[in-house]
Design brief:
Elements: H1 7-18, H2 44-50, H3 58-73, H4 79-98
């Protein structure tokens, strides 16, 4: 599954899924350390060393993460059941992928 997104795109998607927020980038100066203009999240080491590959696309992963953090942020008493539901769904996806 090839689903590369930039870190900036990830932040934008997370904010969109959360429903509010903003990205604040520090002002650029000539004396600042060099930073890559395009950063991507990569699974190369996990794929090579652990033979692990994602079962869902980035959009689903972001939605699940936002759902979990919203539940935690609001003090949701069903956080454990949400966690177990997400893990169960992921395991089903992983099993289907390996079949």
């Amino acid at each position: 599954m090839t689903d590369q997104i930039s870190v900036l795109d990830l932040a934008r998607r997370f904010i969109s899924a959360w429903g509010s927020g903003r990205i604040e980038l520090p002002p650029s100066t000539n004396n600042a350390l060099h930073e890559a203009h395009l950063l991507h999240l990569a699974i190369d080491k996990a794929a090579c060393d652990l033979k692990w590959f994602p079962c869902c696309d980035s959009e689903t992963a972001i939605e699940w993460t936002v759902d979990w953090y919203k539940a935690w942020h609001t003090g949701c008493e069903t956080l454990m059941s949400l966690s177990l539901e997400q893990i169960g769904t992921y395991l089903k996806m992983a099993f289907q992928r390996s079949s």
